[in-house]
Design goal:
Helix 1 runs antiparallel to helix 4 and helix 2 packs across helix 4. The chain is of the alpha+beta class. The chain has a single domain, classed as Arc Repressor Mutant, subunit A. It is built from five helices and five strands; from the N terminus they run ααβααββαββ. 66% of the residues lie in helices and 15% in strands. It is elongated and about 75 Å long.
């Protein structure tokens, strides 16, 4: 039960982070190369503090990692976390496809007899 809650929390953090277009853009930039938070802030029409908050959300979801280099914090994309998100989406797709298949079966049944037409 505790494991299930942790998995659910992690997937919630992951999809919350990916739901925002600025954060998805930050991930793309950090896959190209490592950036300081200051460098990233130059890409967006928002304050440095706002970009920092976006990076913090991405870091909490483990989509990026940060490391210190002198006074700068360098941000790098985490490919493994993106692969994990893809796996979760594939699992969800499987569940929904099976539900749709089942709905097709129900719709094909004769409502009078409860059997397929």
């Amino acid at each position: 039960m505790v494991v299930d809650i942790k998995i659910r929390k992690k997937s919630d953090d992951l999809f919350h982070a990916l739901a925002d277009s600025t954060r998805r853009s930050i991930i793309r930039h950090t896959f190209e190369r490592e950036h300081s938070v200051s460098d990233l802030a130059r890409f967006y029409p928002m304050s440095f503090a706002a970009v920092q908050k976006h990076v913090a959300i991405l870091e909490r979801a483990e989509l990026v990692t940060k490391r210190r280099s002198g006074r700068e914090q360098l941000v790098r994309g985490n490919v493994l976390a993106v692969r994990e998100a893809l796996e979760l989406l594939e699992q969800m797709e499987e569940v929904w496809r099976s539900r749709i298949d089942r709905m097709d079966q129900i719709l094909a049944e004769d409502p009078k007899e409860g059997v397929m037409k």
